[in-house]
Amino acid sequence: MPSLFIDAERLRDLNSGLGQVCLHLGCELVRQCPESRDGEPWSLTFLVPNGQSGIFGDNVQYIETSWMRRLWIPGQYDIWHCMHQDSSYWPRLSQDSQAKSILTIHDLNFLERTDYSTDKKARKLARLQRNVNRATTLTAISQYTASVLNKRLHIPASKSVRVIVNGVAVKPSEVPAESSDPQIQSFTQSPYFLFVGVIHPKKNVHTLLPLLEAFPDYRLILAGPDKHPYAQHIREQAQKLGIIDRLLMPGPVDEPTKLWLYAHSDAFLFPSLSEGFGLPVAEAMAFGKPVFISNLTSLPEIGGKEAYYFDSFEPEHMAQTIDEGLRDFAQNPLRQERMKKRVAGFSWPNVAKEYWQLYRELIDRDVRV
To answer: Any idea what the CATH number is for the domain that residue 295 is in?
Structure first.
């Protein structure tokens, strides 16, 4: 029977985008696990953080992560799927090994970071190239990411990048009756704009602060990890603008709280400069919320014709875009239905189906790597 190893180590942070990818794709891969041609089911083994054995049920095997084992996890599997390009876990394969490996690449956002030196970017790019060289097959989560890979790395023709987009798992029907956070419960009684994501310069969220001057009846919630110095800069700027009492930065939020925030927001704002996919945008669309996003990198692939786009980050332009967009959204009820239909295409069952097709193709190859 074929054996498949899946690196889901990023489950260590379930509230992160990568944690959610590992969780939902892993669950769906197990659910769709087929029988092999000889009638035997595939053997699945997941690499998971310490204490997470069992997260995908009892019909699969688990190896828990350990720095002591990082470099010597054995390579006795037919296929090794690394769900993220920065994983520290790769198999030690012998020269005559017939194993195949898949490397999923989410983004090359580090190339756009102004806080990284040229040397640091070069080192990270070289490391990624080494991982690309190891892999049998490459997948990317958006057409944009695939285009950057082909531009910035050497990709042999035998490893052409296959695009398999992420899924969306949020369910509006699962919104809790009230937020478990009293501060959020109170703050969301007034109309508010929402951003979800890490508070980092690449997310460009400082451009949202002047909007509270243009929309005096609204509040702003920036939900996500806020340990970067940029987060403190945001607070200081809000203080100077005199809108600190209408800004809430609750830090990382759990899934029920995130659902609450999406459900009760008036609009979702995402002026990000660099994305590999843009999962929060798709999640907000699943709730039928008007989304206002930048027209950069992968975001137009997610928003399509149903999103409203910031063509400039000048305060006057952003305010005008939101004002006109909110009025248009209210006057076009079919737009919400088109949005939900679009985001329904970002389905974890579809993602898992595509990966199972890829796994079978690798097993069926005549040429062994």
So the answer is: 3.40.50.2000
